[in-house]
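Record type: ASSEMBLY
Status: queued
Input:
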Amino acid sequence: MADLSTTYLGLKLKSPVIAGSSPLTDNVKSIKKLADAGAGAVVLKSLFEEQIMMDVDALQVNNMHGSYDDIENLATYFTKQKSINEYLTLIKETKNTVDIPVIASINCLSPGEWVEFAKKIEKAGADALELNIFLMPAALEFTGTDYERTYFDVIDQVTKKINIPIAIKLGSYFSGMANFLHRLSQTGISGIVLFNRFYDTDIDIEEQILTSRSYNSHAADNSNVLRWIGILSPHVSCDLAASTGIVNGDTVIKNLLAGAQATQVVSAILTHGAGEITKMNTRLNAWMDEKGYSKTAEFIGKLNQKEVKKPILFERTQFMKYFSNLDYVSPK
Ligand SMILES: Cc1cc2nc3c(=O)[nH]c(=O)nc-3n(C[C@H](O)[C@H](O)[C@H](O)COP(=O)(O)O)c2cc1C
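Status: finished
Output:
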């Protein structure tokens, strides 16, 4: 039996397969199933910045004077307050129930007072905090630099507040990806998760309405992740975790070879159940035995851009080259 363990965010994981943030990680019963199936760690369902702000604004409640709006606000306040307390309880109960690292998650759009809440997460016993930051760069008046500044501002505030490791989970809409992620990795964070996957826009031509593709990922959806893990892993000053399209043991292995310290799985377990994690670990173990690896550290990053014989392959994008270069190994 090979040693499947890895280190991620300074934490020791018994497997590089992490159960990523999803509805399966918002209750202890389901998290226990994922841990029993062999998950190396779990990322809790995200708490949203807006939920936290209701907590921060608590003082305002005292200034309400009984108008209809105030009563509505009060109801919203208590509903949100409940969800924050429930989140802290979830962290504590999960820590008491499973013996794998528990990574809390906050979805945020801006720096702000909500950052104070990160301290409560730390106090509740979370082993790390994943910040799921996403700004769709759709505003005509903002440049890429404007958007990037927000990410740095959030990180600056949170790193000052807590001592547990911080990972940043990002989307893939950045113009100067390598430069941006390299600078992000030098801010004191411990990891970057590449990439979050969002609702894909679609159009229903019968009803003529905007709609969305199913959330289900496929192995092909991992290709962009694999590319950026391979390009960045030799250069960044923090760990990288792969997310999107980790659907089987083979995709886990590929991302480790490209340089990921860990992988996150969601669609596969939402669709087929926690047993997918067991299958991924079994496949990883069999592959390591077959290739003569006793530890994951022996092959993590073996095929990153610095190590491969033809580093340019990671940057190959044009199909023209696909057809003209006879060295290209065509997919079987
Ligand atoms: C139903 C659903 C809910 C999700 N909720 C969250 C969330 O709260 N926070 C987060 O960071 N990611 C969330 N995600 C994104 C996943 O964690 C993951 O990054 C994405 O699904 C890509 O991984 P996959 O290809 O394995 O599905 C969610 C995904 C799905 C499908």
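Annotation: Residues 20-23, 45-46, 105, 107, 132, 169, 196-197, 215, 217, 243-246, 265-267, 270 surround flavin mononucleotide (CB under 6 Å).
Annotation: The longest strand covers residues 102-108.
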